[in-house]
């Protein structure tokens, strides 16, 4: 993870909920050959991002993930990785199953989409035990 990503993760984790801390070029146009590179390390990048994204990133339940797929979001096509999980909303209570999508630009994690209903409608999920075992 580069320094810019670390700073964004530290300075604005709450804004990541609405994708405000991602690179702003993620959803606008651009050279598709450079931007739409398959995210080969997508699971590790998602695990790193979840520490900043979730208030309680440990003891996650029912985590599943889909393979990266090119999907249209806004006016652009990007690699998205759909996830479902049940994370804690406080130290003892679970919030319920949530579905999000991680957006990748140039093969790297960029931001989170909070309501990816259309983009994840046809996702094929497999277990994601690594997310359930996030260290504190």
Describe the structure concisely.
This protein is α+β, with helices and mostly antiparallel strands and 136 residues long. The protein contains 4 helices and 6 strands.
Any overview of this molecule?
- With 136 residues, the chain is α+β, with helices and mostly antiparallel strands.
- It has one domain.
- Helices cover 21% and strands 33% of the residues.
- Strands 1, 2, 3, 4, 5 and 6 form a six-stranded antiparallel β-sheet that branches.
- The radius of gyration is 14 Å and the shape is globular.
- The chain starts with a helix and ends with a helix.
- The N terminus is likely disordered.
Strand elements, count: 6
What is the number of independent domains?
1
Radius of gyration: 14 Å
Helix percentage range = 10-25%
Please give the largest β-sheet: 6 strands, antiparallel
Strand content: 25-35%
The helix/strand order is HHHEEEEEEH
Segments where pLDDT lies below 50 for 5+ residues?
1-27
Mean pLDDT comes to: 83
Cα separation of the termini? 18 Å
Structural category = alpha+beta
How would you sum up the global shape? globular
Q: Can you count the helices?
A: 4
């Amino acid at each position: 993870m580069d320094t810019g990503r670390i700073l964004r993760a530290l300075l604005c984790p709450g804004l990541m909920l609405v994708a405000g801390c991602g690179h702003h070029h993620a959803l606008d146009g651009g050279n598709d050959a450079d931007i739409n590179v398959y995210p080969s390390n997508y699971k590790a990048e998602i695990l790193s991002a979840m520490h900043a994204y979730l208030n309680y990133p440990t003891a996650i339940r029912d985590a599943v993930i889909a393979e990266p797929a090119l999907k249209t979001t806004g006016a652009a096509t990007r690699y998205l990785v759909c996830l479902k999980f049940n994370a804690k909303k406080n130290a003892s209570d679970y919030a319920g199953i949530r579905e999000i999508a991680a957006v990748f630009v140039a093969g790297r994690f960029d931001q989170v989409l909070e309501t990816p209903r259309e983009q994840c409608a046809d996702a094929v999920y497999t277990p994601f035990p690594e997310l359930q075992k996030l260290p504190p």
